[in-house]
Design a protein that fits this description.
With 186 residues, the chain is mostly beta strands. It contains 3 helices and 11 strands.
Length: 186
């Protein structure tokens, strides 16, 4: 696998394989939210049919539409946040079904995935918390952060502040984050 493979490209595969960390809580509080117009636009990896389209929602949030060969593969609400001096992207699926937003939808839990943002200019560069590292780390340090395993998948259940502390504590920990992947602005 090329090092330059963009992390979002493999979200679906990783999710199905149980290889992406999720949280039941966001990684941000309202004070951590930042907005960078530079994120708005269409991003893609060279020689790829996948497109990552960020649009503005009220000058505070973003919509992220992932398309492959013109077919929508996912729609997310994206929140850019700054923890300390480091930017992160918190993604949740855009909710809604043909059945409306009522009782039926109340049966779904919205989960957060999160990515470290290294650069936003003509290139968008991000990395993800390494699932293999996280799994081993939590086996050795089960009291470091609250989590559960659901169907073998690690689910962080800690409050937002604890998740923030954990992410920042391990910014420079060897192998804690995957190699950054990059997209080019179209």
């Amino acid at each position: 696998m090329r090092k330059s493979l963009f992390v979002l490209t493999i979200i679906t595969i990783l999710y199905l394989a149980g290889c992406i960390p999720f949280s039941v809580n966001p990684i941000y509080s309202e004070n951590d939210i930042i907005y960078k117009p530079d994120l708005i636009g269409t991003w893609s990896e060279k020689d790829s049919d996948e497109k990552y389209i960020f649009t503005d929602i009220n000058g505070r949030y973003y919509s992220l539409v992932i398309k492959n060969e013109g077919v929508i593969e996912g729609i997310f609400i994206a929140q850019l946040v700054k923890l300390g001096q480091t930017m992160f992207l918190d993604l949740t699926p855009k909710f809604g079904t043909p059945y409306g937003d009522g009782f039926y939808n109340d049966h779904f839990v919205i989960l957060h995935s999160f990515f470290r943002v290294h650069q936003i200019d003509s290139t968008l560069t991000i990395s993800m918390l390494n699932y293999g590292w996280l799994e081993k780390y939590l086996e050795q340090n089960p009291d470091e952060i609250s989590f559960d395993k659901i169907n073998g998948q690690i689910m962080l259940t800690a409050p937002t502040k604890d998740i923030q502390s954990f992410l920042l504590k391990h910014l420079d920990t060897k192998d804690a984050y995957d190699e950054p992947g990059s997209l080019q602005r179209e």
